[in-house]
Write a structure and sequence with these properties.
This protein is mainly β. It has three helices and 41 strands. The chain is about 5% helix and about 50% strand. The structure holds beta-D-fructofuranose. Beta-D-fructofuranose (FRU) binds near residues 145, 212, 255, 299 and 351.
């Protein structure tokens, strides 16, 4: 009997050792390491070591059985070396890890069932906030909060993609990896034309990223620089540059937004600290001085100047946080003084939107990209970026307000199009039937209510536009047109595989949501509302950005 117990304990231990923890070594000869993932397996720590030195460490759900999907790791920096990969969890999957010159699943890349076709998504893993939005030497850079190893949030890196036109993106290797100070949380980027930080090389100005390093204990602000257009990064040896946990008695100090303040010849950093946004200034991006604080904002600060109705002599500053609710005011380089209450210009899935810096004066636009909190069911990636939009300030009857419309570059995706005028809703519904099986469309329409208190447009039972003139709401959010007696509403609707974005009345208000047809609903497009008139209806088939 005793023997049997000892035997069983021995077997369990052996199993334990076999199932839990293990390592393999690989001599790196190829570009990528392909790793199987299963959402059924628990997260555990995976470590890469070369020559006894720890190189990387991250949480991953290494698939012990059949993988749900594969993720990959760029091996460029390990070429020719032997890496020891150890895993603290169920290590059965270690033997399935392999190196290759292509990523697992390459053949179906960008053609997956639920892959957005005209919005940026990462090849693999989770994305949230856009970071470091900067235009430099003909490229729009899109860095972003990225977990390369799973379709859920964890292991924050800065992912990286570039575009020449804001529409077609090329994903590059990760820009910033977690380090001793923590994982890489949100931040921004600048070009240091005057070499204030001393990182420039000859006539190459450094691109400098200012980001938060997040650890269980605190969040500190750090800088890193790149001399090759954001492809490779060197972290500043004396990071962090701001550590303000003690001052605020709070762990919430993050998401630095930095820009050059020309009138004062200095850098400005807006940081979310505990209960609002703080302003810091610096001459060199390394030493920062606290200047002021304004309460009532949460995460991901933005602060920028815009002309009102395009008049360069009449400008205001706009401040917002991650939710996008904004204040309009004045800024003297050290203090933001609000002149308005808080307003919203957008709602729905958008979060943590940021705007581009270093846009050439000849362009002069304030271009924004927001994170679309959109699920991508069953995909090896999750989340997405919403369409880039142009922000403007305009005088309205209520005062100055922020407007938001898709950048004109989206038009380059237009395929076949049709336009109609003055339609009865039944006729419009009939004409729209031909588009019901299209995955990617832009629909621009103006419709007029006269007998109806509410009216709208559905797609397969999902409400794309629901305008309630009685309660003054568009899709459940208060909305009053600038012409208060207007009976008309205009909607510019972008329908992609898994998302819908709608811009109302020339960008006075916008919203985004998951595309969710009601199960079994065969209705297709459907204008509804008593006796409404569809004044105009334009439909564009949208081409894929991945071709
Ligand atoms: C906003 C946010 C930021 C933070 C990042 C972490 O979505 O919570 O405040 O830096 O995401 O991924």
């Amino acid at each position: 009997m005793r023997k049997r117990i000892v035997f069983i304990i021995g077997l369990t231990l052996a199993n334990h050792i076999f199932l839990f923890a293990g390592d393999i070594s690989i001599k790196v000869t190829k570009k990528y390491l392909n790793i199987p993932v299963s959402q059924q397996d628990k997260r555990a720590l995976m470590r890469f070591e070369t020559g006894g030195v720890q190189e990387r460490e991250f949480q991953i759900r290494l698939a012990s059985g059949i993988p749900d999907y594969w993720v990959f790791c760029d091996l460029a920096s390990f070429k020719g070396k032997t890496i020891k990969i150890s895993y603290e969890g169920n290590s059965e999957g270690l033997s399935k890890i392999y190196q290759d010159d292509v990523i697992a699943g390459k053949d179906s890349l960008y053609k997956e069932r639920n892959r957005p076709q005209f919005h940026f998504t990462s090849r693999r893993g989770w994305n949230n906030d856009p970071n470091g939005l900067i235009f430099y030497e003909g490229e729009y850079h899109l860095f972003y909060q990225h977990n390369p190893y799973e379709r859920e949030w964890e292991n924050m890196h800065w992912g990286h993609a570039v575009s020449k036109d804001l529409i077609r993106w090329e994903e590059l290797p990760e820009a910033l990896y977690p380090d001793k100070l923590g994982t890489m949380f949100s931040g921004s980027a600048v070009i240091d034309y005057n070499n204030t930080a001393g990182f420039n090389k000859g006539n190459i100005p450094a691109m400098i990223a200012i980001y938060t390093a997040d650890s269980p204990d605190k969040q500190v602000q750090c800088i890193a620089y790149s001399l090759d257009k954001g492809r490779t990064w060197e972290k500043y040896a004396r990071n962090p540059v701001i550590d303000s946990k003690a001052k605020w008695n709070s762990k919430d100090t993050r998401d630095p937004k930095v820009f050059w303040y020309k009138p004062g010849n200095h850098w400005v950093l807006v940081l979310n600290e505990r209960d609002g946004h703080s302003i810091y200034t610096s001459d060199n991006l390394k030493e920062w001085h606290f200047e002021s604080h304004i309460t009532g904002f949460w995460e991901c600060p933005e602060l920028f100047e815009l002309s009102v109705d395009g008049d360069k002599n009449d400008t205001r500053w706009v401040m917002y946080g991650a939710s996008g609710t904004y204040m309009i005011g004045r800024f003297d380089g050290k203090t933001f003084t609000p002149e308005s209450g808080k307003y919203n210009y957008t709602a729905g899935s958008i979060y943590a939107a940021q705007t581009y810096t270093n846009i050439p004066d000849t362009d002069g636009r304030r271009i924004q990209i927001g994170w679309g909190r959109i699920q991508q069911p069953g995909m090896p990636f999750n989340g997405m970026m919403l369409l880039p939009t142009e922000l403007t300030l305009r005088n309205t009857k209520e005062g100055i307000r922020l407007f938001n419309v898709p950048v004109r570059e989206v038009e380059m995706l237009h395929g076949t199009s049709v336009q109609w005028k003055s339609l009865a809703p039944e006729k419009a519904n009939e004409l729209l039937k031909q588009f019901c099986s299209d995955d990617c469309l832009r629909i621009r329409t103006t419709f007029k209510l006269s007998h109806a208190t509410d009216a709208g447009l559905n797609l397969s039972g999902q409400s794309l536009v629901n305008y309630d003139m009685n309660f003054n709401q568009v899709n459940g959010v208060f909305y009053s047109p600038d012409d208060r007696t207007s009976m008309e509403i205009t909607a510019d609707i972008f329908i992609d595989k898994t998302s819908v974005e709608v811009f109302i009345d020339g960008g006075a208000y916008s919203y985004s949501m998951e595309r969710k047809p009601r199960p079994g609903n065969k209705e297709g497009f459907h204008f509804w509302g008593n006796n409404i008139e569809v004044n105009s209806l334009e439909v564009y088939q949208m081409n894929s950005i991945w071709k």
